[in-house]
Amino acid sequence: MSSVNRKIRWGILGCASIALRAIVPAIQASSTGELAAIASRDGSKAREAARRHGIPAAYGSYEELLADPTLEAVYIPLPNHLHFEWTIKAARAGKHVLCEKPLALTAAQAQEMVAACREAGVLLAEAFMYRHHPRYDRIREILAAGELGVIRAMRASFTFDNSADTGNVRCRKEWGGGSLYDIGCYTLNAARYLLGGEPEAVTVQAFFSPGHGGVDMMASGLVEFPGGVALTFDCGMWAASRNTIEIVGTAGTIEVPSAFVAPEGRGADFTVTLNGTCRKEPTPPVNQYAVQIDDFGRAVLGREPYRFPAEDAINGMKVLEACLLSAETRARISL
């Protein structure tokens, strides 16, 4: 097969819902990827997932999948506390790694993961799928052109109600559970991406629920950026569903509905309001997970650099750690 038509052979470590619901069809729909294998610690579970989704190979352990010499890249959708271990093992096995967010539990872990992948000569990426959607390129163009004037503030919300499922991995504190780790990380990542800088300090208030393993089931915060710009955010796993972004400038605003979970099969339009006049910015109906796979695949194939350096994940973990510390201590944390 010519290099132009060559596809990356993928394996998936685990049968998590996000893997089967989103990443399996994304790889299969991509132009650069070929889904070749899936693994689970329960071999029958892996075989059933492979049968149902048309995946050629199924393995009864993660080690078996990593030992497959025909696989070039792996996607890791495991619980948060396992990202560190299996990213490093995958790197040592010579596999490129797309790891679910958050990349790690701490910035120190993220730093070690980045170093291990760099030493092994493999690509490491944190799976924030939303930022691969073309609407965010357009939003950044509008901001860079100064259409909104001077940026004054940003608001972001990401909430859903999963409170009835008290046995969910998101309710295991030692596994990296809680709303900040699960979805608050999106709001923080988006602010850093769209505002183009790193925060100076954070202040977060959270509701830690005894009935949910003591994890933060709701959190609200203020994230201070240079120049007097701030992100106000909230995230929660025990609230009505919302995922929105608003950017406020001196001359106008941008409002992004369905900011992180894009609607399926239709455009993901957003609104720009300038001096009282509103316009809708149309965006095409794309599978943002498949776009993520292709961005990753083109980088692995050497066709273009990956858009998001691994160091971005380290900086993101520093902010997330600070938010968790602020929530736990009820204090403003400087970065």
Automatic annotation (TrEMBL):
Domain GFO/IDH/MocA-like oxidoreductase span(s) in chain numbering: 137-255
Annotated SUPFAM superfamilies: Glyceraldehyde-3-phosphate dehydrogenase-like, C-terminal domain, NAD(P)-binding Rossmann-fold domains
Keywords, ordered alphabetically: Oxidoreductase
Segments forming domain Gfo/Idh/MocA-like oxidoreductase N-terminal: 8-126
Cross-referenced InterPro entries: Gfo/Idh/MocA-like_OxRdtase_N, Gfo/Idh/MocA_domain, GFO_IDH_MocA-like_dom, NAD(P)-bd_dom_sf
Transmembrane segments: none
Family: Belongs to the Gfo/Idh/MocA family.
Annotated protein name in UniProt: Gfo/Idh/MocA family oxidoreductase
Organism: Paenibacillus chitinolyticus
